[in-house]
Amino acid sequence: MTDAPYTPPKVWTWDKENGGRFASINRPIAGPTHDKELPVGKHPLQLYSLATPNGQKVTIMLEELLALGHKGAEYDAWLIKIGDGDQFSSGFVDVNPNSKIPAMLDRSANPPIRVFESGSILLYLAEKFGAFIPTDLAGRTETLNWLFWQMGSAPYLGGGFGHFYAYAPEKWEYPINRFAMEVKRQLDVLDRRLAETEYLAGSDYTIADIAVWPWYGGLALGWQYNDSATFLDVASYTNVQRWAKAIFERPAVKRGRKVNRVTGEPSDQLHERHDAGDFDIKTQDKVAK
């Protein structure tokens, strides 16, 4: 880090060496870098993902649907290694031109329907199966309010605070303070709402909770960005803590967090999921033996 302030050039140019931990996969252009078809399994729903917070939203939703008895929600979950650039294959770009996980194909339709952006996938599945979204106008709208709140807020948490606090090649006071302030404001928004209601949209668990929990629930439970839970004093947001812990106790949430996971305890890693029985026989603690 230099003491001199940065003066932007008149025209920005791409410096591949300047990107920190994710320099190898970040680029200012779209489109595929290589030709490779995506695998296809036996179920109508084909998910291509990784167990980031955005990826967890969809696997939790699918496991919750299956727990309700929606057999049509059976799915194949294929691992996309974003560190290796799998998201830039021609097959993946065909499903999501934005080259971000998660992406899903619903092959029960002809032609198959592609669904990308995690919020869009949650809404698609909720409407397809008639679950986790209220049918009355007021309840549906409140659910979507919080779903879209998450989609707009998470970049400040992940791309802002998380990047500068945990991933940037050097720590700078200004961006860390700027984004820490915003994340704490967001936690206060959630804490005030959850003082009023059991779940974000009211008394019922909805796609709003499924969307917000992997990001802010994970932060509240101390799972994200090194020691950020201490730095942000997440324990002081008592209503968020209550909500985060209650959702974590849901069996479908515990299953959904394991799918496409490649970090953490081997027993919590199910790299690919093609059948409900895979949780019993194909987690990394089992396959590594």
Describe this structure in words.
By secondary structure, this protein is of the alpha+beta class. It has helices at residues 53-67, 90-95, 118-129, 137-167, 173-194, 207-220, 228-231, 238-248, 251-258, 278-281, 284-287, and strands at residues 45-49, 75-79, 103-106, 113-116. The protein has a four-stranded mixed sheet with strand order 2-1-3-4, with helices on one face. The radius of gyration is 20 Å and the shape is globular. The mean pLDDT is 95.
Q: What's this model, at a glance?
A:
The chain has helices spanning 53-67, 90-95, 118-129, 137-167, 173-194, 207-220, 228-231, 238-248, 251-258, 278-281, 284-287, and strands at residues 45-49, 75-79, 103-106, 113-116.
Q: Order of strands across the widest beta sheet?
A: 2-1-3-4
- How far apart the termini lie comes to 46 Å
Oligomerization state: single chain
Number of strands: 4
Content of β-strand: 5-15%
Report mean pLDDT, rounded to a whole number: 95
Give the helices and strands as they follow along the chain.
EHEHEEHHHHHHHHH
Low-confidence stretches: none
Please, how many helices?
A: 11
Q: Share of helix among residues?
A: 40-55%
Q: Which class do the helix and strand fractions yield?
A: alpha+beta
Shape field: globular
